[in-house]
Amino acid sequence: MFTGCKEKETLPEDVFDRYIGLWQQGQYEAMYELVSGTAKETASIETFAARYRSIYEGIGMSNLSVTALPQAGEPANDDGLSEKTFAYQLKMDTSAGPIDVEGDMRVARDQETGEWKVDWKPSLLFPSMEEGDKVTVRTLQSRRGEIYDRSGNGLAVNGSIEVIGIVPGEIGEAGEKTIAELARRLEVPESFIREKLAASWVKDNVFVPIVNATGDRAGLDLSDLQGVTKRDKSARIYPYGEAAVHLTGYIRQVTAEDMEKHKDKNLETDDVIGKAGLEQMYDDRLRGKDGVQISIVAADGMVRETLAKVEPVNGEDIRLTIDADLQESMYRSLDGDAGTGAAIHPRTGEILALVSSPAYDPNLFIQGLSEEQWTSWNEDPKKPLLNRFTKLYAPGSVFKPITASIGLQLGVSSVDEVKTIKGLRWAKDGSWGSYYVKRVRDVPVEDLTDAIVNSDNIYLAQEALEMGADDFTREAEKFGFGRALPIDYPFPKASLSNDGITNEILLADSSYGQGEVQMSPLHLALSYTPFINDGELIAPLLEIKEGRGGKEGKELKGEAQGERVLAPDTAEAIHRMLLRVVDDPKGTGHGAYIPGRKIAGKTGTAELKRTKAESGQENGWFVVYDAEGFDFLMAVMIEDVRERGGSSYIVRKTAPVVKGYVENRN
Prior knowledge:
There is one protein chain. By secondary structure, the protein is an alpha+beta fold. The protein has 3 domains: 12-129, NTF2-like, domain 1 (Nuclear Transport Factor 2, Chain: A); 147-318, Penicillin-binding protein 2a (Domain 2); 325-664, Beta-lactamase. The chain is built from 21 helices and 25 strands. The strands form 8 sheets. Strands 6, 7, 8, 9 and 14 form a 5-stranded mixed beta sheet that branches. A hairpin with a 6-residue loop joins β24 (617-626) and β25. α16 crosses α18 (504-511). It is elongated, with a radius of gyration of 37 Å. 38% of the residues are buried. Residues 1-6 and 551-560 have low confidence and may be disordered.
């Protein structure tokens, strides 16, 4: 008679293999069915599965591997055993790197059913875990790189600011009065403080920041207000404030728009990002890479074991050729006027200053910018948010040395060539119709040097017409027109004309920096370097690296990047003319004269108007350099100087900068 066959008993090895197989596949609910009844009494299936998922998701787990390790000689099956221990290896990749640990799993007979079950304990999450422990993921903050000038002065550095706040549990019974008085002293609405205190995370013993203790608030004595205190917090600091803001830019906390736009940066909501200037341009280099640490932490807060750790990588520090003291001196000299300027070392091309005025204080973004302040900046007619040193402007008469040098280079002009010019207006012939060139001084007889000293539009216009548009354009373009400046900072290309110099009137106007000629102040400063360097146009340098730039720059002429655009004798001739502009009491730049010093330069004004009859805005220019040490050249423009003395106004404003620099240089 057939009696059937006995069902094969499930062995502890089978339970172990089944459990680690499900574990590796992430089937936590199925794992739960294999654990002992005692374990099930402490956690539901939902709690059990959720614990695994939350821990593994929290640590960024991937590539999970759970494998059995060889046993230490125990028999495969022994009916007398009530429990058996199996060794295993747990491997995974995480946000903090790989985890590779070995653990033991106890499989025991259930006393009621006799089935083999996993004796689950927290150590089956990670071997060193005990009851009450937690797995924590801690971000290890990296340091944002800092920006320094040539002498090591900080332009954008990591520092700290004081924060005024309240500890709610210490405010006492006079809380309402304290809030009212604090609001009065901080000049904020009471509702502003109450909203801060009403945040969901606020607890009685937790410091609640209200405002940053900067500006007028820095000196407030709040010691009489119970529960009100000051604490330090880390912050990005801009020591030169508005004097350098258009150069440095600023950082702000990332927005959803930033995260969408810069997906490659893997930004988090509490990250910061450069929003303008060098902070934006060098953001990838300045930005550090945060580390992460995954640890098992006991109930008392002590770290039981560090499972994985990636050390933070700090951002790169950047050192510039900028002279922060000169930067500030130039900015202060403008005294709120709308204007801009650039200073360079003319031998090496090192950029010493890039200034835009008026400006704004980047520290306010860190301190907490009010909507009223932002609106004020946006609506200010002088446009403090506008970075003027990256804009193009008509250079006016400061362009004339370029025209003069081209005439000499082509042999059309000579230093001692005398022209007889009558009156303040001139037109070539009747083909010009009502159009004419005008000049400021009526000098009947003058040579080329006189024309530069007197800033004579007519003389230079006649020279340009003799050259012709093609030759003039070809030689002028050698000064960098139509080409991007070889520098990381984004500057627009200077231009001689929009679509070529197509007629004699445009050629005449171009000869004295009007017409369609457009230059940035930095490009203008660079265009004067051939007059100092035997005809060589020097390329700009902003960052100090690999030994180039810095205080030693004046010894680096041989390493300067440049190209020859003039013959040495032509360059020397223009240099002598520019010396006369300042030395000669009749020279338009004589206001910058320093007894016993050699200073050279050129003034200019550029009229912004559509017709001759129109009275438009007049921008004043001054290009000036130290003709003795040859380590300083500055080009400055101030808008709307017509009613303030024209170019003489800008000379008066900037002459102290020149004097201070040349007399105090090392």
